Amino acid sequence: MIGILVMIAIVNPYMMLTTLFCGSFMYILTIIYLNTAQAIKRLEGVTRSPVFSHVSASMAGLFTVRACGAQDMLRAQFDDKQDVHTSAWYLTLVTNTAFSIYLSLFSALYVLIVAYTFLLMDDGTTKSGDVGLAISQGLILVNMVQHGIKMTTEVVSQMISVERVLQFTKLPQEAAGGPPAPRDWPQRARLVFKDLYLRYDREAEPVLKNLNIVIESGWKVGVVGRTGAGKSSLISALFRLAPIDGHVYIDDVDTGEIALKDLRSRISIIPQEPVLFSASLRYNLDPFDKYSDAEIWKALEQVELKQSVTSLSAEVEAGGANFSAGQRQLLCLARAALARNRLLVLDEATANVDPNTDALIQKSIRKHFADCTVLTVAHRLHTVADSDRVVVMEAGQIVECGHPHDLLQNENGYFAKMVNQLGSASEQSLREIAQKAYLQHIKYVDADDHAQ
Ligand SMILES: Nc1ncnc2c1ncn2[C@@H]1O[C@H](COP(=O)(O)OP(=O)(O)OP(=O)(O)O)[C@@H](O)[C@H]1O
């Protein structure tokens, strides 16, 4: 470009004025266009996300949509969102085209002035070869400038996408917590909740109110209560997923004073919806490649899945679709068995499986996690009937706590009333399970006393 400009200046020095005039106009035009293009690009990005979310939500709930015959409703919703996005996209195309037209007009004007300057200011010495050279080079110059401006504006407006990604890096981050936890912590997994309050929002009323409870090492504790009683919030407090007031101690270590990463990696949890990746079975059980094949097979054997699995390289489909709900939970249990943490939490883990699989999972836990402290949040009361303790929650508070058999003796108690509502057959079987567990518990305590 500089070479062409020098050549034109040698042939006709007045052309520098024209170049400066047209160049300034193109510059002003570019600045105006860039501001508009960036704003529109931002708008286009914001209106595009709802289209994608709607498509992925519709795909995820395809069976429900078809079962309810809601295709037309979803299609109409999709069209609305796409219309909004198309409006923004149309604005992008229109402004881009308008900008190109104005650029072309200025380029044509420049070549026109170059040509007419030679005509009008001819003093008889201009050579026709010079004129031809200046016009042809002028045409090349304006093409270069147009292309350069278009590419620059394209890059600057595409940078809006980078800006949107960078916004995520500025989200407020969770504090990392204190120093690393001791290496072999927790050894006993004795849990103490002391004066515990939990709020999801600093301004809101506490969801957990003044919780005080000690869970001894190795106890299997069931947490029950009505919907919204705060059972899952108790788990959130344990993992420090929400800000808490008060203290949670595990083996006398305040969980608020150690690194969050350590705290969360030392507690195993089996959630209601198991998380499985579309990868090999081995990757699903041991994503960080920490254990040998023999250890993984042993864990599968412990949860009685060894027979159902042919190879560790077998593929698990997205969300574990090629496994039954119970098997998915057992895979999570195998993961917990591999991690060998002393504290295991089950958050309504067996809500979606049939009572037999529930019993199998509970049996496996009693057998292979015998030394671990296990906290089981359950809606199905039979799941926790043979626990060492049952904690009954109501409106964010612990209203009852004790051995299920003891709690059932108090007919006006919360637990006994919940059991009453099951119907006489279920109530009878639950009472029998609790009594059997109680007798075993007594036998165990007696044997322990005798040994001492
Ligand atoms: N992420 C959250 N943000 C704000 N409030 C929440 C949040 N999670 C739960 N809550 C509120 O906390 C209270 C207790 O909810 P929690 O999920 O602990 O109950 P739950 O006993 O586990 O219920 P469920 O048996 O239905 O799972 C409810 O009133 C709920 O509205």
TrEMBL record:
Keywords: ATP-binding, Membrane, Nucleotide-binding, Transmembrane, Transmembrane helix, Transport. It is a multi-pass membrane protein. Pfam families: ABC_membrane, ABC_tran. It comes from the Eukaryota. GO terms for molecular function: ABC-type transporter activity; ATP binding; ATP hydrolysis activity. Residues 191-420 form the ABC transporter domain. Residues 1-157 form the ABC transmembrane type-1 domain. One of its GO terms (cellular component) is membrane. CDD domains: ABC_6TM_ABCC_D2, ABCC_MRP_domain2. It is found in: Membrane. Its main location: membrane. The chain crosses the membrane at residues 12-34, 99-119. This is Uncharacterized protein. It comes from Euphydryas editha (Edith's checkerspot).
